[in-house]
């Protein structure tokens, strides 16, 4: 079963497409033309709605569905024949388009509520392959790009914990060792270790950004990287959601063809930042031919262990810092009068 917030954000968005007078009637009807939503899920939604704890989320998801139903780029007031909910199933392979709903077998909708994360990649895929191809690797990225400094901070951690049962080499840690370290180092770094870790983190960030820049030496490589970061695909799709303050987001994600037709890429900059954790900033400068003006897209990448300090392989969370409706390639939905 999907968690409650996910079920609300995705299914209520879908219900908003059908033209019910209000959300109460839509929930009471339990329409079967939303595929993959059964009575168990509707019971979950009814309980959440009655609790009042998710009122803002219900409201913005419902309004987003109604907006797409009327939007010129969407259904234009025509009720859909069917809406398919992807639900909590695991996809058989990596999905390029992060769709949660499919409308009439044509419109793909991603429901993105309360998140600025564009995608969660492995550092190997981001910094070594520029998001071009996905390859599963469990190697420790920190040991790859800053081996000496990483070993030194581990030595300091081992001495701080006075735990001689831990292996002397950081690359010898097994799952049990990592679990012990995670429990021993919850929350922020201890004051005694914080400054040294920040220096190691900065080295990791600089080395990571340098690795990525070696993959972006030509204009075509930089342009394709921008498309992949923004998740532009061969077919357009839609994002309906809300920002961290529950304000509605609704836009069409265009294609690389659309992007190249309207925009001229000026530059792509990537650099490591001293931020207390491995942080890589990215910036895209473009020229908008239609508006005859220059535009900027800003974001950052947080490189961190997936399950606490020394716990699990590091991951790279790619964040968008520019407001979604100001991003080149993301076209806000328009609703006619």
Describe this entry's structure for a reader.
The chain is of the alpha+beta class and 337 residues long. 37% of the residues lie in helices and 23% in strands. The protein has eleven helices and twelve strands. It has two domains: 4-113, no CATH class; 120-233 and 255-327, no CATH class. α1 (4-15) packs parallel to α4 and α7 (147-161) runs antiparallel to α9 (191-213). The two termini are 39 Å apart. The protein has helices at 4-15, 23-29, 39-51, 55-70, 123-128, 141-145, 147-161, 175-184, 191-213, 219-229, 256-262, and strands at 34-35, 83-85, 101-103, 107-113, 117-121, 237-242, 248-253, 263-273, 279-288, 293-305, 314-320, 330-332. The strands form two sheets. Strands 1-2-3-4-6-7-12 form a seven-stranded mixed β-sheet, with helices on one face. A five-stranded antiparallel β-sheet has the order 5-11-10-9-8. A hairpin with an 8-residue loop joins β10 and β11.
Question: How many β-strands, per DSSP?
Answer: 12
Mean pLDDT: 93
Indicate the overall shape. globular
Strand and helix order: HHEHHEEEEHHHHHHEEHEEEEE
Strand order of the largest sheet: 1-2-3-4-6-7-12
What profile does the largest beta sheet have? 7 strands, mixed
The unreliable regions are none
Instruction: Give the helix/strand class.
Output: alpha+beta
Report the radius of gyration as a whole number of Å: 23 Å
């Amino acid at each position: 079963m999907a968690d409650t917030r996910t079920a609300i954000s995705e299914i209520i968005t879908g219900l908003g497409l059908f033209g019910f007078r209000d959300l109460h009637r839509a929930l009471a009807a339990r329409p079967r033309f939303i595929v993959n939503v059964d009575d168990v899920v509707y019971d979950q939604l009814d309980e959440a709605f009655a609790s009042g704890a998710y009122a803002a989320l219900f409201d913005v998801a419902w309004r987003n569905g109604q907006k797409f139903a009327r939007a010129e780029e969407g259904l234009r007031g025509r009720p859909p024949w069917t809406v398919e909910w992807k639900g909590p199933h695991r996809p058989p392979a990596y999905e390029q388009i992060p769709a949660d709903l499919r409308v009439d077998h044509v419109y793909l909708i991603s429901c993105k509520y309360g998140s600025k994360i564009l995608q969660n990649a492995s550092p190997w895929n981001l910094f070594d392959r520029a998001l071009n191809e996905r390859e599963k690797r469990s190697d420790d990225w920190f040991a790859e790009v800053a081996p000496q400094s990483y070993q030194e901070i581990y030595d300091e951690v081992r001495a701080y914990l006075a735990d001689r049962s831990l292996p002397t080499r950081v690359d010898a840690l097994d799952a049990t060792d990592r679990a012990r370290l995670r429990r021993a180092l919850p929350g922020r770094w201890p004051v005694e270790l914080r400054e040294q870790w920040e220096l190691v983190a900065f080295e990791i960030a600089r080395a990571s950004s340098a690795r990525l820049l070696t993959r972006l030496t030509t204009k075509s490589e930089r342009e394709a990287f921008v498309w992949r970061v923004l998740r532009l695909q061969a077919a357009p799709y839609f994002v309906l959601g809300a920002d961290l303050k529950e304000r509605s987001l609704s836009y069409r994600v265009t294609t690389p063809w659309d992007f190249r037709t309207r925009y001229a890429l000026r530059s792509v900059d990537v650099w490591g930042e001293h931020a207390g954790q491995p942080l890589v900033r990215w910036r895209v400068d473009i020229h908008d031919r239609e508006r005859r003006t220059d535009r900027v897209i800003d974001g950052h990448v947080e490189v961190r262990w997936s399950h606490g300090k020394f716990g699990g392989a590091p991951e790279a969370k790619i964040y968008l810092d520019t407001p979604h409706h100001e991003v080149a390639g993301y076209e806000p939905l328009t609703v006619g009068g």
